[in-house]
Amino acid sequence: MTTESLSERTSGATRAGVPTKDGLFSEIARMASVIWRSSERNQLLMLGTGLVSVVAGTAYMQIRLNAWNQPFYDALTRKSHSG
């Protein structure tokens, strides 16, 4: 018999060290409950919201920049095909 520790059996980990689906969701739920009870909860939520906002804003601006540059790159493509 193998000697699994109690934490390995209750966390849902497989022998390869990869968590199972149930183990992963239980770990996420446990982390969320710890964060929710934390005294720094508001700071964490504000930082998370700020991070998502920065990523979304960067993606939006990159799309706008690509649209702005499209005529230039289209002209380069036409020039390389005609010459």
Series of H and E elements: HHH
Total individual domains = 2
The count of strands amounts to: 0
Major beta sheet summary: none
Number of helices: 3
Q: Mean of the pLDDT scores?
A: 83
Strand content: under 5%
Radius of gyration: 25 Å
* Shape assignment: elongated
Structural commentary:
This protein has 83 residues and is mainly alpha-helical. It folds into two domains: 1-37, no CATH class; 45-83. The chain contains three helices and no strands. The chain has helices at residues 6-11, 21-37, 41-82. It is elongated and about 65 Å long. The termini are far apart. The model has no long low-confidence stretch (mean pLDDT 83).
Write the layout of secondary structure elements.
Blueprint: H1 6-11, H2 21-37, H3 41-82
Summarize it.
The protein folds into two domains: about 1-35, no CATH class; about 45-83.
List keywords for this structure.
mainly alpha, 83 residues, 3 helices
